[in-house]
Amino acid sequence: MAETATAAGPGARLRDPTFWGDNAALIGLILIGAAFSLLTPYFLTWGNITALLVSASILIVLATAQQFTIVAAGIDLSIAANLPWSAVVFGLTYNAGWGTAGAIVAAIAAGALVGTLNGLIIAKLKVNDFIATLGMLGVMSGVALIASNGQSFSVFSTFLQTLALGSIGPIRYFYLIALVVVLAAHIVFKYTAFGTHVLATGGNREAARNMGIPIDRMRVAVYAINGALVGVAAVLLVSRTGGADPSIATDELLSSIAAVVLGGSSLFGGRASMLGTVAGALVLTTLLNGFTLLQVSSFYQPIAVGVVVIAAAVLSRFQQ
């Protein structure tokens, strides 16, 4: 019996919809990479791969931030405003003489503050995650514009230039930061009581409450972590662009959600896959990179991301 099951195992696994749901990001990455390799000779050049991975590093940090809220059966729509808000705080504090280190701390704290407010509104005022973060999206978009007077800030920092362009051998600092964030999140979800409690909160909230898990505290915590990681992404973005713009990178919301769900995490919570999230972020970045190399109009790129979001939602039906 055992030998028969083993022999039939690979075929049965391929016929199992769960397999395709769990590995959609990795399979998609391989197929998309192969297609662009054939369509353009510039795709596999060292310079393009480096630029692709640098862009992916920022999205990986944002997707990890989104992962914390989605695992707890929530969602954060305010990322699209919290990211430029944190960047604006960096620009304001840096130009006010706080120095690079002070501005980095301020940006991360500003992001964490927004996340904490989201968590408190959701946990204490019992407002739906979607509505609360949608409202915060509008609020922080306006606050960022008011604080910056609608203007961007130039940032000239040797440290940020080194962060954006420097490397250890072929390993860019951006990759290392993204790797540290992903590994830290993996350790939290896999090996800590906090991570277990977050997973339980997302998996079955009432059962977790009956077990004595402080549900409200968990929800505030995941949104605070989410916000702090958005602040980290804002620092990376400022270092890459050399400035802080209140309207920068507002299209990252859909991408952060798509990367998480495409990577194998359930929109209904209780399931985390950091490796899948990385693969999902790489799929989206590769897709946009390939379109740029093929000179596809930027008007079509949001359509592609939207299609991926829908596909990810469909695939989530097959995840267990």
UniProtKB/TrEMBL annotation:
Q: Which residues form a coiled coil?
A: none
InterPro entries documented for this protein: ABC_transp_permease
Gene Ontology terms: cellular component:
plasma membrane
Q: Please give, as recorded in its UniProt entry, the membrane topology of this protein.
A: Multi-pass membrane protein
Cite a single GO MF annotation. transmembrane transporter activity
Recite the UniProt keywords alphabetically: Cell inner membrane, Cell membrane, Membrane, Transmembrane, Transmembrane helix, Transport
| Compartments, as annotated in UniProt | Cell inner membrane
Chief location bin: membrane
Q: Where are the transmembrane segments?
A: 24-44, 51-75, 95-123, 130-153, 173-199, 220-241, 253-270, 275-293, 299-318
UniProt lists the family membership as follows: Belongs to the binding-protein-dependent transport system permease family. AraH/RbsC subfamily.
Q: What is this protein called?
A: Sugar ABC transporter permease
